[in-house]
Amino acid sequence: MPKKLLFAVLFLGMISCQTEEKGDPFATVAPEETRFTKIALVEGLNEPMELEVLQNGDVLIIERNGLLKKYIRDSKELIEIGSLEVYPDGEDGLLGMAKDPNFEENQWLYLYYAPLKGASINRLSRFTVVEGLLDKSTEIVMLEVPVFRGCCHSGGSVEFDGEGNLYVSLGDDTTPFESDNYNPIDERPGRPENVDAQRSSGNSNDLRGSIIRITPQPDGTYTIPEGNLFPADDPLSRPEIYVKGNRNPYRIGIDQRNGNLFWGEVGPDASEDSLRRGPKGHDEINLATKAGYFGWPYFVGNNKPYWKYDFEKQESLFEFDPMAPKNTSPNNTGIEILPPATPALIWYPYGASEEFPMLGEGGRNAMAGPVYYRDDYADSEVRFPGYYDGKVFVYDWMRNWIFTVSLTENFEYDTMERFMPNTVFDKPVDMQFGPNGDLYLLEYGTFWRAQNDDSGLYVIEFAPGNRKPKAVADASVKKGAAPLKVDFSSVGSMDFDPEDQLQYEWTFGLAGANSAEANPSYTFEDPGEYTVELTVTDREGLESKANVVIQVGNQPPTVAINWEGNRSFYFGKDQIKYEVLVEDMEDGTVDPGKVDFSIDYLAGGFDLIQIGHLEEELSVGERYINESGCKACHAIANASVGPTYNDVSEKYAGQTDAKAYLTDKIKNGGGGVWGERVMPGHTHLADDQIETMVDFILALKDPNYGDERLPLKGEFPITEVDNVEGYYVVQAGYTDGGANGIAPIRTQSQFILRNATLPAVQGNEYKGAAKANTDVDQFVKFTEDKSWVRFAGIDLSSINQLKLLLNPGGTKGSIEIRIGSLDGKVIGKTKTLSQADRPSGASGNWFPEIIQIEKTDSVQDIYFIFEAASDVSIWNTFNLYSIQFSR
């Protein structure tokens, strides 16, 4: 090539690269999370299922109870535009929606739902939206799927690909609760049909347990596209099936450029591997680049095989072969030898995943969303950057995370990373990129089968340049008697672009005044409820708002617990004098019988630090319920998957055996009392925890249940001291009668007494220090000079000595102890220590260092700060195991 031509080519290439960098500075570099803004469009939806974003920015939303709603972008209204009569029980209802690829012209909408009347079927129909409303008279029934009513796994996601093919995901319609939470393949005669998934997921002649692919036609019929799993002329197979071997493919996503199909597979519940049944449950993220069989009910995860199990003889016969899965069930009406099983793209159990540890632990409910391409939104200022090109967005309904997954050129797993890890998501249930390349997100909210306040429609926008400011509004007091002076604060409001100067505007609700100060004061003269709004605006006119509600007319009661002992620790068996004092301005003399006071002992089991900072007062039983995740299926008052706790309490009120009966139910599982749904056992919970949960439930409708009220003044015996993880919860609360049109206000006071020896890993904050895990110990490693660990809110009253268990490792240094802040008062310090200072006779990895500290009669944050006297690194650390506080 001539040199001049070569130079010209190189020059043009450089210009091209520079243009791309300038146009998209985040083409290859991950953007900061602060460049994304999650904006609430509407909240308080009633079980939202799927969404469709229209070209004008309006959004269609379906709710499981049969309603079709539209969010109107310009007016910011949510209106109902249609409804279907649906069968609402189990997991059925209005489940899936997709707009036609030519929706702007033909107004066709495809809905997958369970009709209320007639045969037990789920139905795919096409409707027409006429003058903005769903016209039910235009319904064309395209497909009906016979189902077994009353249990599980309906699937129901509906999506189009870029070629005009329509996909519908269908669950296995099989109960998971009668097979010990392994694979349900019960072939015994006379059993209900919904205990054998071989009749659905393993059956080539049944649409359930599959993802179908069809091509809708203008007249409302459909044809079969080339490349589906089974031939069209096979009497033992359904030609609509594209993917087979699904358990509950609840949400699917399709790469609009190449047709790759992604879905989240909600897996079985077994928590342990079984040598003679098969693997523990896993959720899966799956990818189909072509038609295939994906394993259920014979395999899970990366083709982990289940055993052929004889339920009558309770014998395991053989492991299934993923290369030639064989369905010999008498309930099978299709072919016997299924195609070889395709393993999952990503798989993870309840516990930590060996292959994908970044996915965390806990409940699972995998889902798949869209694949992003920046070039599809060329004229948008809020489109996501090229960093996300070709990545698929996957999410988990239970774990509340979103990940982006990158694939290799051969569409194999490459990498994944958490998307917006510091942002709160509440049960994400569907997502779709809008016409501007911003991400629309539906969140279901906390409780299953409930209209949740924390459900809603949101949009996530990206700002490559100037970013929207953040508004934070707070008040020195939010409730009180009139007149009420309030100091308002905008502290925390910020702009992520440092050159911006924010402008502030406060409006004081019905009071009618405003202020341009950052932190104004205002006195409310008259009783009432005032919504105070803060608007912050940056130099380019972008703004954000925040509200704080002020209630004037009712002074909150005061509740104090006078406790003559230390309020952080117990130091062995003891008798502690106490008195609960309650005052209320409007109520006057307070009835002691209306004051709630309790001291409960917990043997341990969940995060002490979190419990110590709860803002609302909860019973110990409700805390265990929250921590155990039971409210995903049960709520106190609102109907959900299972009965409400109020209903359970009412049903068993006064029954002498109720506690033992319900404890056994929770522990071992069961069903039949509240319908056909079976509750799985909770054998992982300690018996005393379950009993405490049952006490809370039974007391809801029986105020005299277990009523052993403590007097408001007396002595309390500290007796439970042998369990180092056990702790006492001391709490008192009072609800006043309300005044001047302001609702009753509750005030509570609480604190926790812990064992006086704190593991170092229970610190609240770390800097330059890390938690380390070995087979026998958990401890804190100080990895650099001036690294530290902070313990929050420690009562130092009567504390005069600390004993630190430590190991200097291969370095030398000391630990300085400060209170209040990193620059706060020094109350103690170890001498400079190395391994040479190990006391003679000390055994094990740790040896004690005793420090006399300056007496401090207050509650303080305590900082343990490492000061290095020799080289220190992440491999050569100074280590702290525990701190014992002594009187």
Give me a quick take on this structure.
8% of the residues lie in helices and 37% in strands.
Any overview of this molecule?
With 887 residues, this protein is mostly beta strands. Among the domains are: 474-552, Immunoglobulin-like; 558-755, Orthogonal Bundle (Cytochrome Bc1 Complex, Chain D, domain 2), CATH 1.10.760.10; 758-886, Galactose-binding domain-like (Jelly Rolls), CATH 2.60.120.260. 8% of the residues lie in helices and 37% in strands. It contains 7 helices and 58 strands. Strands 10, 11, 12, 13, 14 and 18 form a 6-stranded mixed beta sheet that branches. Strands 48, 50, 51, 53, 56 and 58 form a 6-stranded antiparallel beta sheet that branches. The chain has a 5-stranded mixed beta sheet with strand order 32-38-37-34-35, with no helix packed on it. Strand 21 and strand 22 (315-319) form a beta hairpin. The longest helix has 21 residues, at 3-23. The chain starts with a helix and ends with a strand. Residues 616-701 form the Cytochrome c domain.
